[in-house]
Batch of 2 targets.
Target 1
Amino acid sequence: MQIGSFLAIFLTVTFILHGMAFTLLGFRRGRPYYFLLTGTFTFLTAIYFMKFEGWTPKVPGTSLPITWLVRTGAILCTLLYLRAIYNEKGSWLWRLRRRFWKRSHISRPAD
């Protein structure tokens, strides 16, 4: 097996498993923002599948590659997830933000 084929299979399976795990977390914990990560990994799976298959589809009537739209979708899902957990008390981003504000001499934001 060539390294490129192995890498393609590995990344595809990994992205699918991550998407399934975040879907399960979303249902189990009742936190809808986990579904945004499911969307991110769905878009990543599509991007890498097209890349490794050598597909270069274009948006009909333009020369814009569809992969750019899919990448935009992945970025938007990730940014919306980060926005959702920014003020979620106890989230990793909330703790990181508080730790940063404690160490710096900048006045802390109101919680």
Target 2
Amino acid sequence: MMQANQETDSDNAFWQVRTAIKSLMNFQGEDDEDDVIYAANKLNFVLRVVHDNHRAWNDETIRNFVLIQNDPLKHLNVKSEKLNHIVRKIQQEMIVNFS
């Protein structure tokens, strides 16, 4: 029964983060639309991989995967602090929910 609860918690966390990423797609700001789409797509990829592997990974591996190896902002010329903040918040949610 405990395994089922962990699965439910993991799935709920997945959908909470997924919803945040979907809301990013509607971001209106001074950043290029292509950059916003790239960031959202990269975050979706990271979320799927973390969700699939979080039981086998330790906290540091998850943090490294999310913030260093697959940080969408390192490939973008982000113009607004708001976009930067939203992406960082989504990344932190992934780390907290799956660590």
